[in-house]
Amino acid sequence: MLPQSDIIILVVISGLKEAVTGDTLAKGANKKSGKLAGIELPDPVFFCTIEPPSMGKQKQLDLALANLAREDPSLRVIQSDQDNDQTILQGKLTIAV
């Protein structure tokens, strides 16, 4: 059994702009250097390509995909070459019923 001072309390926090899944956050002067075990990401089960409706929307699409990838680490965003202006998405398929 761990001594009282070594007990770890896990808390769920939403709305952090710079933290991502797998980050270890600590509070207080007695922060121990260490890292909690991360999550294992599944292999992608879907692959698709997307493109913006116009080149003027590319920056907005890139920002939206970056936010999605930060929230869902299983999503992989691969920028393809500039010849076809398509972005490749890979990830796991989650269906909520």
Produce the secondary structure layout.
Elements: E1 46-50, H1 58-71, E2 76-79, E3 87-91
Antiparallel strand pairs: 1-3, 2-3
Corresponding CATH architecture: 2-Layer Sandwich
The 3D shape can be described as: elongated
> What is the number of independent domains?
1
User: Could you give the order of the helices and strands?
Assistant: EHEE
What separation lies between the terminal Cα atoms? 41 Å
Q: Which band does the percent of strand residues land in?
A: 5-15%
Major sheet summary line: 3 strands, antiparallel
Descriptive overview:
A hairpin with a 7-residue loop joins strand 2 and strand 3 (87-91). With 97 residues, the chain is an alpha+beta fold. The protein has one helix at residues 58-71; strands at residues 46-50, 76-79, 87-91. It is built from 1 helix and 3 strands. 14% of the residues lie in helices and 14% in strands. The chain has a 3-stranded antiparallel sheet with strand order 1-3-2, with helices on one face. The radius of gyration is 19 Å and the shape is elongated. The protein has a single domain (4-91), classed as Alpha-Beta Plaits (2-Layer Sandwich), CATH 3.30.70.
